[in-house]
Batch of 4 targets.
Target 1
Amino acid sequence: MLKLQSSENKATRQGFGEMLVELGKENPNIVVLGVDVTPSVKTDLFMKAFPDRFFSVGISEQDMIGTAAGLYLAGKIPFVSAYGEFAAGRPFDQIRQTLAYSVIPVKICASHAGITVGPDGATHQSLEDMSIMRSLPHMVVATPCDYLQTRKMIRASLDLHQPLYVRYFRDNTPVFTNPDAPFQFGKADKLIDGSDVTIIACGLQVWEAILAEETLASEGISARVINMHTLKPIDRACIIEAAEQTGAIVTAEDHQIHGGLGSAVAEVLSQSCPTPQEFVAVNDTFGESGKGDELMKKYGIAKDAIVAATRKVIQRKKR
């Protein structure tokens, strides 16, 4: 069985900012738009490298989306970035009407997503964004699990001809994916094989799932771990195969329990392969200020919650 280990911690937002600069050197048509959080989301790296290709619209996410659409129609390749709560929620009308409806491939890169924004509190913790974006026709929705995958995802976004919502995170997190592994939107990564249960996770919860697998293995439970980095289009074949081969599913995400990864997986299972499923997610509540790791434990989305959900779903499988 494959064992994954982390040798360092790096922020996914750093991977985003660095890759923007690399792509900017390769393609003079790439432009970046930001609001009032340029250093925080690491678009300042692009701004310093290409000041004539960076545009700040101030505290006006709605204008950021509309301006990006106009730049695309003028032949540019626009990336926009803000905190997740303000990248998805505040300009939803512009994203729906201007990007999704017209199929304009602006790349919306949402930093500081999920409850691990921590000290910024509930107003800045985007726990609904994947649900909002997943509901839009033509929108691709994805969330990388570490620094390396963020870099690959941003590079691969150049080949998309649809709008994209990418969700990543504030804190330094373990770097554990294989730098040489290929990346493809809509194609999940099976990180650890297993036969008793499958843990399907996205974003920061992929590492928590790997830690949970170690605990479960010590109890004699063989858990498959899948990184479902793309929620839309979701890898239906991977989900169905896991359900057929292991007979039990746990989903884990740093998002509300409604409308995110768990809901997306449940839609596939109900249509194609009804299977016991347990959901590890924020349970229909807002968050609060605190340290990211402490909030993950309090709101039931860390390793121990995944272990408990796995034990529960295996008992349901046996009935």
Target 2
Amino acid sequence: MKRKLISFLITIVLIMGILPLTVTAAEAPFTLEAPTNLTAELKKDSDGVPYFELRLNVPQSVRDLNARLLEDSEYFEGKVCEEIQLVFDYKYGKYDWNEGPSQYWNTSAYLADFLEMGYFEYYPFDSSTKYEDVDIKSEVYSFRARFQAIWGYVGDWLDNQIYSDYSNTVTIGNPAYWSTASDWATPELQKAAEAGLIPEILKNADMTKPITREEFAEVALLMYQKATGITDIPPASPNPFTDTKNPQILKAYQLGIVKGTSATTFDPKKLINREQVAAMLVRTIKLIAPNADYSTAGAPTFTDQADISGWALDDCLYIAKLGIIKGSNGKFMPRAVTQAQTAAGYANTSREQALAMSVRTVDKINEITESSH
């Protein structure tokens, strides 16, 4: 009898320990959409102290919910909910999230305050640091954000937390993002690094080398993600290719940015020429701005235009019209048409050229979108 009583009491204790967690999760009064299009810009205040200005888009559903909470915190049938907060995480250099040197550890703001300001100021440096002493090129700062709400029952502690998913991650800085680069390319490579347009596959690479199909697929995919804020892209499944399992390639293929070289092959290590780059760029742009004007009227004429493959002609002219791919001495240099040109690597696209094209494309997105019919 004693054993049965002890067993019964243990069961009751276990149930009491588990039940509140289950009820808390089941009775959360609402869900929160994630913030989108997070951006970061390095600035300095009136005293010359550097800081990051963080901006993002707040979904209308979150705005509406916060307005209701400000009117009546007990709107949800006796459940008390504080107003929504916007919480920023930071990542410095090789430290993990929210670790390493920082002036402020608690990087959060009430949503109403953020909406009134339109941005959040994040000071990662000691207040005595002079702006001219800060070399953003030497380290990388990354940021992400999510919404948080705290709720509970009347008379109880407000100790239940509701979080949204994270926003996109934005990275600014350049910690030797490349081992070698041409002088002409350095400014645009720096812009690519600050905008988060350099994929992992190219970090610390020799940017003067020709880019492969695999590498450019990752460049184009990242450009699409940064321009749209869409990061949750499923890879093609089942994998149609026998020569690659790279999920970034399969995501780009799923979106229609890249195609295979056959029904079962992708040729990830094959080098890519300028007309192929133009075609991939235009496919990516059309995903970002599907209703834009893609006419080639006003495009320049090239002395080697006859060498552009028929399937790529409109793409090459459109990209040239925007100034994303620039010719040289009146030539577009779309592809190698002789054995000598093939042997010399004629028309191959370098990694730095590809990243420069990515930067120019992102810079032109608003102009492209505004050309919509």
Target 3
Amino acid sequence: MGIVGVNLFDRQFGKNQSFNSAGNVACALLIAGVSHLFGNRAIFITAAVLTIPTVLAIRAIKGSDIDYDLARGGAKLVGGKEVPARSSAMQTLLGDRILLVFLACAFLFHFANAAMLPQLGEMLSHGARATAAPFMSACIIVTQVVIMCSAPAIGRFANLHGRKPLLLLGFGVLPMRAVLYTLTHNSGGLIAIQLLDGVANAIFGVVSILVVADRTRATGRFNLVQGSLATAVGLGAALSTTFGGKLIQHFSYRISFLSLGAIATIAFVLLWTAIPETLPDRHESGTDISSPTTSQEFPA
């Protein structure tokens, strides 16, 4: 945001998520090849070597290219000029009901989502242990490829048409995925179902940050709330595997998948009924659309 400005943040963040997933896919394929040729120890050497181009890329970013106040959501327009803004941390986190409900939705989304793929791999490994690892790899790559291909379009759509339609789609496919997992054990069919996982994670990964940016504009607390979102996501994911595992232990995989799907449905209903559209009307009087100077912006 500090480099491209608020107006281009939506589309640029979608591009960044696409490159992120492309890197995940490339790294997975590279490590698979290296481990096959040189053994598992070479995986760690490869990971260490990959930090070198990462550091070089970071060093190529000039500090002067970044508006640091805008990067933390801390600029607003007063009399046609940008001025620094900083709101109370407690007021930003606890005083915004919409933001709190959205964090609850994020928690429920990952509570429902995180355990599904590991449970699926565990279930399949009981009958075909030799094919479980390649199957899991294929599922992960399918998800990342979907994110890589769709994230830029998601950023553009969210910029033009709003956040909520995309969020409803992303949250809505999650209970469908849970039900579909109970209907087939065919490997091809299950890999195809992973397309839904890619759609859900692509939308959440891009749009959730855009919602945070919308709700923290001109507060100076963008990064703080991003951390809160990461906490909600992490808690949901951590509890998901425990919850799903207990249901498998006491009941069955089918019950676990359906229960996770029920939680996903609760998250969808909460999002639908309690979260309004957060994209500001850029033609509305008084709306803050702060962005760095024109020289810092580039086409998205």
Target 4
Amino acid sequence: MRIIVDAMGSDRRPAPDVRGAVDAAREYDVEILLVGDETRIRAELNKLGAVPSSVSLQHASQEIEMREHPALAVKEKKDASIVVGIEQLKQARADAFVSMGNTGAVLAASVLHLQRIKGVHRPALGALFPTPQGPCLLIDVGANTDCKPEWLEQFGIMGESYMRAVLGMEQPRVALLANGEEETKGNQDVQAAHVLLKQRAQSTGMNFIGNVEGKDIAARLADVIVADGFVGNIALKTAEGISKMLNDLIRSEIKSSPLTMMGGALAMPAFTKVKKILDYTEYGGAPLLGVNGVVIIGHGRSNEVAVKHAVRAAMRAVESQILETIRSGVTPRA
């Protein structure tokens, strides 16, 4: 298996991207194609000592910054690492593409070059949301806004396919994110999507359990939570912000006195366990579902551990034949 890694993606590029990719090559016995500025990539590789022969390079003279307009950047910067990497995937020179870069640019390049799976209205970005009971998938978290009911229905189908194929769940619970559990809650599009998902459950056996509220995501009342990308992104970023605030607050209070420092030292094993459960780097990145290729997108602030685990997520998606699973699950409505 060969995985393309955008070496110019993360905020601290190319160090975390290159180091994580090399670690993945060592640990997972996978071929890695690093795409980006060859001079900077080689300089980073030289710091790592012996690099596996399974790691190769593809030069790309440009990179897309986080602040740039995604669609315009993809069209204008044809030699950007994201564009070159996606094009390599399109040409079947690798099995998957991983980037910690501009999410909108990865989406635009994927739709433009890989195109959508036949029958898919809009590709969706799914994020694995950590909970004590294991991760649930929140979909969409930013690829689409003002979603139509039939788009939301397909997000549910694609999310269910991912959880079944990649995480091995036999019958994932699918729910719709709304402002109440009742069928009548939500705006008109959410209410219409509820009807479509309910019909889908009756015709295909999808385990659709109805609406859930924001508080239910962390409680993992569902395995797949369907949302408009605008709403899903806010829910995800809010949760990340609260998690960071609590972590910083606990650290501050522990250091506030000798007594609390002593108690903190005794509780350190518990804190470490909780941190591991809530750590986004454990999952690496979010799958972009609905395009003709395995694409994983990670946080710009990702470290080498997150990059390595993003490669692992890409490998699992390829091994589970997620594209075929989605193709068989998505059927256009008459």
